[in-house]
Fold:
Amino acid sequence: MAFERFGTMDVNKAGHLEIGGVDALRLVEEYGTPLYVYDVALIRERARGFKKTFEELGVVAQVAYASKAFSSVAIYELMHEEGLSLDVVSGGELYTAIKANFPKERIHFHGNNKTVEEIEMAIDYGIGCMVVDNYYEIELLQKILKKKKAKMSVLVRVTPGIEAHTHDYILTGQDDSKFGFGLTNGQAEEAIRRILAASDEFDLIGLHCHIGSQIFETTGFIMAAHRIMEKLVEWHKTLAFDSKVLNLGGGFGVRYTAEDKPLEPAEYVKEIIHEVKKMAKDNQLSVPEIWIEPGRSLVGEAGTTLYKIGSRKEVPGVRDYVAVDGGMSDNIRPALYEAHYEAVLASSPLDKAEETVAIAGKCCESGDMLIWDLPLPKSNAGDVLAVFCTGAYGYSMASNYNRIPRPPVVFVENGKSKLVVQRETYENLVQNDLHL
Ligand SMILES: Cc1ncc(COP(=O)(O)O)c(C=O)c1O
Structure:
Protein backbone atom coordinates (compact mmCIF):
# COMPACT_ATOMS: atom_id res chain seq x y z
CA MET A 1 0.00 0.00 0.00
CA ALA A 2 1.43 3.36 -0.99
CA PHE A 3 1.32 5.88 1.80
CA GLU A 4 -1.40 8.37 0.80
CA ARG A 5 -0.94 11.71 2.51
CA PHE A 6 -3.85 13.80 3.68
CA GLY A 7 -3.64 17.56 4.15
CA THR A 8 -0.34 18.64 5.71
CA MET A 9 0.87 15.11 6.37
CA ASP A 10 4.52 14.56 5.59
CA VAL A 11 7.49 12.39 6.43
CA ASN A 12 10.13 14.36 8.31
CA LYS A 13 13.93 14.09 8.28
CA ALA A 14 13.81 11.38 10.92
CA GLY A 15 11.54 9.40 8.59
CA HIS A 16 8.57 9.76 10.95
CA LEU A 17 5.00 10.68 10.14
CA GLU A 18 4.39 14.37 10.66
CA ILE A 19 0.99 16.09 10.81
CA GLY A 20 0.59 19.86 10.89
CA GLY A 21 4.38 20.10 11.12
CA VAL A 22 4.48 18.01 14.32
CA ASP A 23 6.18 14.61 14.59
CA ALA A 24 3.57 11.96 15.43
CA LEU A 25 5.97 10.23 17.84
CA ARG A 26 6.45 13.50 19.69
CA LEU A 27 2.67 13.79 20.03
CA VAL A 28 2.58 10.30 21.51
CA GLU A 29 5.33 11.20 23.98
CA GLU A 30 3.44 14.29 25.08
CA TYR A 31 -0.17 13.06 25.09
CA GLY A 32 0.01 9.24 25.15
CA THR A 33 -2.11 6.80 23.17
CA PRO A 34 -4.71 6.29 21.86
CA LEU A 35 -4.79 9.86 20.58
CA TYR A 36 -7.00 11.63 18.06
CA VAL A 37 -4.97 14.15 16.05
CA TYR A 38 -6.66 16.78 13.84
CA ASP A 39 -4.93 18.60 11.01
CA VAL A 40 -6.42 22.08 11.45
CA ALA A 41 -5.08 23.42 8.13
CA LEU A 42 -6.97 20.71 6.26
CA ILE A 43 -10.22 21.53 8.05
CA ARG A 44 -9.74 25.22 7.19
CA GLU A 45 -8.97 24.35 3.56
CA ARG A 46 -12.17 22.30 3.25
CA ALA A 47 -14.31 24.98 4.91
CA ARG A 48 -12.87 27.69 2.67
CA GLY A 49 -13.24 25.48 -0.41
CA PHE A 50 -16.99 25.08 0.14
CA LYS A 51 -17.50 28.77 0.85
CA LYS A 52 -15.41 29.94 -2.10
CA THR A 53 -17.39 27.84 -4.58
CA PHE A 54 -20.64 29.49 -3.54
CA GLU A 55 -19.05 32.94 -3.62
CA GLU A 56 -17.55 32.41 -7.08
CA LEU A 57 -20.90 31.30 -8.46
CA GLY A 58 -22.67 34.24 -6.84
CA VAL A 59 -25.09 32.22 -4.73
CA VAL A 60 -26.20 33.26 -1.27
CA ALA A 61 -25.32 30.28 0.91
CA GLN A 62 -24.73 28.88 4.33
CA VAL A 63 -22.25 26.07 4.88
CA ALA A 64 -23.31 24.46 8.14
CA TYR A 65 -20.92 22.04 9.81
CA ALA A 66 -22.87 18.85 10.63
CA SER A 67 -21.37 18.60 14.06
CA LYS A 68 -22.49 15.04 14.79
CA ALA A 69 -19.30 14.14 12.88
CA PHE A 70 -17.17 15.55 15.70
CA SER A 71 -18.59 17.72 18.43
CA SER A 72 -16.42 19.66 20.86
CA VAL A 73 -16.01 23.24 21.99
CA ALA A 74 -12.77 23.70 20.03
CA ILE A 75 -14.11 22.38 16.72
CA TYR A 76 -17.12 24.71 17.06
CA GLU A 77 -14.75 27.61 17.71
CA LEU A 78 -12.73 26.66 14.63
CA MET A 79 -15.84 26.45 12.45
CA HIS A 80 -16.90 29.85 13.75
CA GLU A 81 -13.46 31.27 12.88
CA GLU A 82 -14.03 29.99 9.35
CA GLY A 83 -17.46 31.63 9.16
CA LEU A 84 -19.47 28.42 8.98
CA SER A 85 -22.90 27.76 10.40
CA LEU A 86 -23.63 24.84 12.69
CA ASP A 87 -26.02 21.89 12.54
CA VAL A 88 -26.84 20.38 15.93
CA VAL A 89 -29.10 17.43 16.64
CA SER A 90 -29.41 17.34 20.40
CA GLY A 91 -29.46 19.42 23.55
CA GLY A 92 -25.90 18.23 24.20
CA GLU A 93 -24.59 19.50 20.88
CA LEU A 94 -26.48 22.77 21.41
CA TYR A 95 -25.03 23.11 24.91
CA THR A 96 -21.54 22.58 23.47
CA ALA A 97 -22.25 25.30 20.89
CA ILE A 98 -23.38 27.66 23.66
CA LYS A 99 -20.18 26.92 25.60
CA ALA A 100 -18.21 27.72 22.43
CA ASN A 101 -20.08 31.04 22.05
CA PHE A 102 -21.19 29.98 18.61
CA PRO A 103 -23.31 32.73 16.99
CA LYS A 104 -26.84 31.64 17.80
CA GLU A 105 -28.37 32.91 14.56
CA ARG A 106 -26.21 30.47 12.59
CA ILE A 107 -27.27 27.36 14.53
CA HIS A 108 -29.74 24.94 12.91
CA PHE A 109 -31.42 22.28 15.04
CA HIS A 110 -32.25 18.86 13.55
CA GLY A 111 -33.78 15.68 14.90
CA ASN A 112 -36.75 13.38 14.53
CA ASN A 113 -37.70 13.43 18.20
CA LYS A 114 -36.71 16.69 19.83
CA THR A 115 -37.75 16.81 23.45
CA VAL A 116 -39.65 19.62 25.13
CA GLU A 117 -36.45 20.53 27.02
CA GLU A 118 -34.42 20.66 23.81
CA ILE A 119 -37.01 22.78 22.03
CA GLU A 120 -37.23 25.20 24.96
CA MET A 121 -33.44 25.42 25.12
CA ALA A 122 -33.27 26.21 21.39
CA ILE A 123 -35.98 28.89 21.63
CA ASP A 124 -34.46 30.47 24.76
CA TYR A 125 -31.01 30.59 23.17
CA GLY A 126 -32.54 32.13 20.03
CA ILE A 127 -31.07 29.77 17.44
CA GLY A 128 -31.34 30.55 13.72
CA CYS A 129 -33.79 27.86 12.71
CA MET A 130 -35.44 24.60 13.57
CA VAL A 131 -35.56 21.85 10.98
CA VAL A 132 -39.03 20.46 11.50
CA ASP A 133 -39.26 16.71 11.02
CA ASN A 134 -42.82 15.47 11.67
CA TYR A 135 -46.40 16.55 12.47
CA TYR A 136 -45.96 15.84 16.20
CA GLU A 137 -43.08 18.32 16.25
CA ILE A 138 -45.08 20.99 14.41
CA GLU A 139 -47.79 20.77 17.07
CA LEU A 140 -45.39 20.63 20.00
CA LEU A 141 -43.19 23.44 18.72
CA GLN A 142 -46.23 25.63 18.03
CA LYS A 143 -47.59 25.03 21.54
CA ILE A 144 -44.26 25.95 23.15
CA LEU A 145 -43.76 29.01 20.93
CA LYS A 146 -47.29 30.19 21.75
CA LYS A 147 -46.65 29.81 25.47
CA LYS A 148 -43.41 31.75 25.15
CA LYS A 149 -44.98 34.32 22.80
CA ALA A 150 -42.11 33.63 20.43
CA LYS A 151 -41.74 33.13 16.69
CA MET A 152 -39.23 30.87 15.01
CA SER A 153 -37.75 30.35 11.55
CA VAL A 154 -38.28 26.80 10.36
CA LEU A 155 -37.18 24.55 7.53
CA VAL A 156 -39.32 21.55 6.62
CA ARG A 157 -37.31 18.36 6.19
CA VAL A 158 -38.51 16.39 3.20
CA THR A 159 -37.60 12.95 1.85
CA PRO A 160 -37.33 13.35 -1.90
CA GLY A 161 -37.44 9.58 -2.52
CA ILE A 162 -33.74 9.28 -3.24
CA GLU A 163 -31.28 7.43 -1.07
CA ALA A 164 -27.63 7.69 -2.00
CA HIS A 165 -24.57 5.81 -0.75
CA THR A 166 -21.20 5.88 -2.43
CA HIS A 167 -21.92 5.02 -6.10
CA ASP A 168 -25.45 3.76 -5.55
CA TYR A 169 -28.53 5.82 -5.38
CA ILE A 170 -31.89 4.24 -4.84
CA LEU A 171 -35.26 5.69 -5.71
CA THR A 172 -37.38 4.96 -2.67
CA GLY A 173 -40.93 5.39 -3.88
CA GLN A 174 -42.48 5.02 -0.46
CA ASP A 175 -40.00 7.37 1.27
CA ASP A 176 -39.28 4.75 3.91
CA SER A 177 -37.28 6.78 6.40
CA LYS A 178 -37.73 7.80 10.02
CA PHE A 179 -36.82 11.36 9.00
CA GLY A 180 -38.89 14.05 7.40
CA PHE A 181 -42.04 14.39 5.32
CA GLY A 182 -42.54 12.51 2.05
CA LEU A 183 -42.22 14.87 -0.88
CA THR A 184 -44.30 12.86 -3.29
CA ASN A 185 -46.96 11.36 -1.00
CA GLY A 186 -48.53 14.64 0.08
CA GLN A 187 -46.98 14.76 3.58
CA ALA A 188 -44.62 17.63 2.82
CA GLU A 189 -47.42 19.71 1.32
CA GLU A 190 -49.63 19.09 4.35
CA ALA A 191 -46.78 20.12 6.67
CA ILE A 192 -46.24 23.32 4.71
CA ARG A 193 -49.98 24.13 4.86
CA ARG A 194 -50.04 23.65 8.64
CA ILE A 195 -46.94 25.76 9.17
CA LEU A 196 -48.13 28.55 6.88
CA ALA A 197 -51.44 28.56 8.76
CA ALA A 198 -49.57 29.20 12.04
CA SER A 199 -47.79 32.33 10.90
CA ASP A 200 -47.88 33.87 14.41
CA GLU A 201 -45.42 31.21 15.56
CA PHE A 202 -43.63 30.13 12.40
CA ASP A 203 -41.64 31.82 9.69
CA LEU A 204 -41.32 29.09 7.07
CA ILE A 205 -38.04 29.89 5.36
CA GLY A 206 -37.52 26.77 3.28
CA LEU A 207 -36.99 23.08 2.75
CA HIS A 208 -34.31 20.62 3.77
CA CYS A 209 -33.25 17.18 2.63
CA HIS A 210 -30.32 14.86 3.30
CA ILE A 211 -30.03 11.95 0.91
CA GLY A 212 -27.29 9.84 2.48
CA SER A 213 -23.64 9.56 3.31
CA GLN A 214 -20.23 8.88 1.76
CA ILE A 215 -21.57 9.81 -1.69
CA PHE A 216 -19.08 9.88 -4.59
CA GLU A 217 -21.32 11.09 -7.39
CA THR A 218 -23.39 14.15 -8.02
CA THR A 219 -26.38 12.34 -9.56
CA GLY A 220 -28.29 11.87 -6.29
CA PHE A 221 -27.90 15.54 -5.30
CA ILE A 222 -29.01 16.72 -8.73
CA MET A 223 -32.06 14.46 -8.64
CA ALA A 224 -32.97 15.65 -5.15
CA ALA A 225 -32.58 19.32 -6.13
CA HIS A 226 -34.62 18.72 -9.28
CA ARG A 227 -37.47 16.99 -7.46
CA ILE A 228 -37.68 19.65 -4.77
CA MET A 229 -37.52 22.49 -7.30
CA GLU A 230 -40.39 20.85 -9.25
CA LYS A 231 -42.48 20.92 -6.09
CA LEU A 232 -41.50 24.50 -5.37
CA VAL A 233 -42.79 25.50 -8.81
CA GLU A 234 -46.09 23.79 -7.98
CA TRP A 235 -46.37 25.30 -4.49
CA HIS A 236 -45.53 28.76 -5.79
CA LYS A 237 -48.79 28.53 -7.74
CA THR A 238 -51.00 26.52 -5.37
CA LEU A 239 -49.83 27.72 -1.95
CA ALA A 240 -48.19 31.06 -2.82
CA PHE A 241 -45.17 29.58 -1.02
CA ASP A 242 -41.75 30.77 -2.06
CA SER A 243 -38.85 28.98 -0.44
CA LYS A 244 -36.11 31.40 0.58
CA VAL A 245 -33.80 28.52 1.43
CA LEU A 246 -33.04 25.13 -0.07
CA ASN A 247 -30.86 23.00 2.22
CA LEU A 248 -29.46 19.91 0.50
CA GLY A 249 -27.77 18.39 3.55
CA GLY A 250 -24.38 16.70 3.66
CA GLY A 251 -23.01 13.34 2.60
CA PHE A 252 -20.05 14.31 0.40
CA GLY A 253 -17.65 11.37 0.33
CA VAL A 254 -14.10 11.09 1.69
CA ARG A 255 -11.16 8.75 1.12
CA TYR A 256 -10.91 6.04 3.74
CA THR A 257 -9.00 3.63 1.50
CA ALA A 258 -7.59 3.51 -2.03
CA GLU A 259 -10.94 2.16 -3.22
CA ASP A 260 -12.63 5.46 -2.36
CA LYS A 261 -12.45 8.09 -5.07
CA PRO A 262 -14.31 11.13 -3.82
CA LEU A 263 -14.86 14.22 -5.94
CA GLU A 264 -13.43 17.55 -4.88
CA PRO A 265 -16.03 19.03 -2.49
CA ALA A 266 -16.48 21.97 -4.85
CA GLU A 267 -17.68 19.63 -7.61
CA TYR A 268 -20.77 18.61 -5.67
CA VAL A 269 -21.60 22.20 -4.89
CA LYS A 270 -21.16 23.36 -8.50
CA GLU A 271 -23.55 20.74 -9.84
CA ILE A 272 -26.16 21.43 -7.17
CA ILE A 273 -26.03 25.16 -7.91
CA HIS A 274 -26.24 24.55 -11.64
CA GLU A 275 -29.41 22.46 -11.29
CA VAL A 276 -31.13 24.84 -8.88
CA LYS A 277 -30.33 27.88 -11.03
CA LYS A 278 -31.53 26.11 -14.19
CA MET A 279 -34.82 25.03 -12.61
CA ALA A 280 -35.38 28.50 -11.16
CA LYS A 281 -34.71 30.20 -14.51
CA ASP A 282 -36.86 27.78 -16.53
CA ASN A 283 -39.77 28.38 -14.16
CA GLN A 284 -39.35 32.09 -13.43
CA LEU A 285 -38.65 31.48 -9.75
CA SER A 286 -36.01 33.38 -7.82
CA VAL A 287 -32.94 31.32 -6.94
CA PRO A 288 -33.20 30.30 -3.27
CA GLU A 289 -30.31 30.53 -0.86
CA ILE A 290 -28.53 27.18 -1.02
CA TRP A 291 -27.43 25.68 2.28
CA ILE A 292 -25.37 22.54 2.75
CA GLU A 293 -24.37 20.53 5.84
CA PRO A 294 -21.09 18.70 5.34
CA GLY A 295 -19.78 16.73 8.30
CA ARG A 296 -17.43 13.96 7.20
CA SER A 297 -15.94 15.95 4.30
CA LEU A 298 -14.90 18.76 6.67
CA VAL A 299 -13.26 16.71 9.41
CA GLY A 300 -12.93 13.07 8.31
CA GLU A 301 -9.63 13.11 6.45
CA ALA A 302 -8.22 15.66 8.89
CA GLY A 303 -8.32 13.11 11.73
CA THR A 304 -5.70 10.44 12.45
CA THR A 305 -5.74 8.10 15.44
CA LEU A 306 -2.42 7.10 16.98
CA TYR A 307 -2.31 3.80 18.86
CA LYS A 308 0.43 1.79 20.54
CA ILE A 309 0.87 -1.77 19.35
CA GLY A 310 0.85 -4.42 22.07
CA SER A 311 0.25 -8.14 21.75
CA ARG A 312 0.46 -10.33 18.65
CA LYS A 313 -1.34 -13.59 18.11
CA GLU A 314 -0.49 -15.87 15.22
CA VAL A 315 -3.12 -18.25 13.88
CA PRO A 316 -0.99 -20.52 11.70
CA GLY A 317 -2.11 -20.56 8.10
CA VAL A 318 -4.89 -18.04 8.79
CA ARG A 319 -3.70 -14.64 9.94
CA ASP A 320 -1.64 -12.70 12.46
CA TYR A 321 -3.54 -10.49 14.88
CA VAL A 322 -1.72 -7.36 16.01
CA ALA A 323 -3.52 -5.65 18.88
CA VAL A 324 -3.57 -1.93 19.67
CA ASP A 325 -4.45 -0.07 22.87
CA GLY A 326 -7.82 1.18 21.58
CA GLY A 327 -10.46 -0.21 19.28
CA MET A 328 -14.24 -0.13 19.02
CA SER A 329 -14.41 2.14 22.07
CA ASP A 330 -12.73 4.95 20.06
CA ASN A 331 -13.78 3.84 16.56
CA ILE A 332 -17.01 1.87 16.30
CA ARG A 333 -17.27 2.24 12.52
CA PRO A 334 -15.56 -1.01 11.46
CA ALA A 335 -17.77 -3.03 13.84
CA LEU A 336 -20.91 -1.03 13.07
CA TYR A 337 -20.63 -0.50 9.31
CA GLU A 338 -17.78 -2.78 8.25
CA ALA A 339 -15.91 0.43 7.50
CA HIS A 340 -12.40 0.08 6.08
CA TYR A 341 -9.30 2.04 7.03
CA GLU A 342 -5.64 2.34 6.08
CA ALA A 343 -2.75 2.75 8.50
CA VAL A 344 1.04 3.02 8.70
CA LEU A 345 3.71 2.75 11.35
CA ALA A 346 4.29 6.33 12.47
CA SER A 347 8.02 5.68 12.83
CA SER A 348 8.43 4.52 9.22
CA PRO A 349 5.47 5.31 6.99
CA LEU A 350 7.52 4.88 3.81
CA ASP A 351 8.95 1.45 4.66
CA LYS A 352 7.88 -1.43 2.46
CA ALA A 353 5.26 -3.80 3.81
CA GLU A 354 6.62 -7.22 4.73
CA GLU A 355 3.46 -8.88 5.97
CA THR A 356 -0.29 -8.49 6.07
CA VAL A 357 -1.76 -8.35 9.54
CA ALA A 358 -5.16 -7.93 11.15
CA ILE A 359 -5.38 -4.97 13.52
CA ALA A 360 -7.40 -5.93 16.59
CA GLY A 361 -8.77 -3.67 19.26
CA LYS A 362 -8.47 -4.38 22.99
CA CYS A 363 -12.18 -4.65 23.77
CA CYS A 364 -13.78 -7.85 24.91
CA GLU A 365 -15.57 -8.54 21.61
CA SER A 366 -14.42 -10.75 18.73
CA GLY A 367 -15.89 -8.14 16.40
CA ASP A 368 -13.55 -5.48 17.78
CA MET A 369 -11.33 -5.38 14.71
CA LEU A 370 -10.09 -2.11 13.23
CA ILE A 371 -8.54 -3.40 9.99
CA TRP A 372 -8.68 -6.98 8.70
CA ASP A 373 -5.91 -6.93 6.07
CA LEU A 374 -3.25 -4.32 6.60
CA PRO A 375 0.06 -4.56 4.74
CA LEU A 376 2.70 -3.42 7.23
CA PRO A 377 6.46 -3.57 7.81
CA LYS A 378 7.42 -5.90 10.69
CA SER A 379 6.11 -4.28 13.86
CA ASN A 380 6.92 -4.70 17.53
CA ALA A 381 5.17 -4.00 20.78
CA GLY A 382 5.52 -0.30 21.53
CA ASP A 383 5.43 0.81 17.87
CA VAL A 384 2.91 3.52 17.03
CA LEU A 385 0.20 2.76 14.48
CA ALA A 386 -1.39 5.74 12.72
CA VAL A 387 -4.89 5.01 11.38
CA PHE A 388 -6.02 7.56 8.81
CA CYS A 389 -9.30 9.33 8.16
CA THR A 390 -10.75 8.85 11.64
CA GLY A 391 -11.86 12.46 12.10
CA ALA A 392 -15.58 11.90 11.49
CA TYR A 393 -17.84 9.73 13.66
CA GLY A 394 -14.83 8.49 15.65
CA TYR A 395 -14.64 10.57 18.81
CA SER A 396 -18.32 11.50 18.49
CA MET A 397 -19.34 7.82 18.53
CA ALA A 398 -16.74 6.77 21.12
CA SER A 399 -17.94 4.97 24.23
CA ASN A 400 -16.66 3.76 27.56
CA TYR A 401 -17.28 0.13 26.65
CA ASN A 402 -15.20 -2.07 28.98
CA ARG A 403 -14.77 1.12 31.02
CA ILE A 404 -12.07 2.31 28.69
CA PRO A 405 -11.53 6.07 29.09
CA ARG A 406 -12.08 8.09 25.90
CA PRO A 407 -8.84 9.32 24.29
CA PRO A 408 -7.88 12.98 24.18
CA VAL A 409 -8.07 15.16 21.07
CA VAL A 410 -5.17 17.27 19.88
CA PHE A 411 -5.22 19.92 17.17
CA VAL A 412 -2.00 20.43 15.20
CA GLU A 413 -1.18 23.41 13.00
CA ASN A 414 2.00 25.18 11.88
CA GLY A 415 4.32 22.99 13.93
CA LYS A 416 2.33 23.38 17.17
CA SER A 417 -0.02 21.09 19.02
CA LYS A 418 -2.91 22.03 21.26
CA LEU A 419 -4.86 19.73 23.55
CA VAL A 420 -8.56 20.42 22.96
CA VAL A 421 -10.19 17.47 24.71
CA GLN A 422 -8.54 15.93 27.75
CA ARG A 423 -8.09 12.20 28.19
CA GLU A 424 -10.80 10.77 30.41
CA THR A 425 -9.60 9.47 33.74
CA TYR A 426 -10.76 6.47 35.73
CA GLU A 427 -12.24 8.99 38.14
CA ASN A 428 -14.33 10.44 35.26
CA LEU A 429 -15.65 6.95 34.62
CA VAL A 430 -17.08 6.51 38.11
CA GLN A 431 -18.10 10.09 38.81
CA ASN A 432 -21.81 9.41 38.20
CA ASP A 433 -21.84 6.03 39.92
CA LEU A 434 -23.56 5.79 43.29
CA HIS A 435 -22.98 3.25 46.05
CA LEU A 436 -25.62 0.75 47.03
C1 LIG B 1 -29.38 15.85 8.33
C2 LIG B 1 -27.94 15.56 8.14
N1 LIG B 1 -27.14 16.53 7.64
C3 LIG B 1 -25.83 16.33 7.46
C4 LIG B 1 -25.24 15.12 7.78
C5 LIG B 1 -23.75 14.96 7.59
O1 LIG B 1 -23.43 13.95 6.72
P1 LIG B 1 -21.89 13.73 6.33
O2 LIG B 1 -21.11 13.65 7.57
O3 LIG B 1 -21.91 12.43 5.57
O4 LIG B 1 -21.50 14.91 5.48
C6 LIG B 1 -26.02 14.07 8.28
C7 LIG B 1 -25.42 12.78 8.62
O5 LIG B 1 -25.99 11.85 9.07
C8 LIG B 1 -27.41 14.30 8.47
O6 LIG B 1 -28.20 13.35 8.96
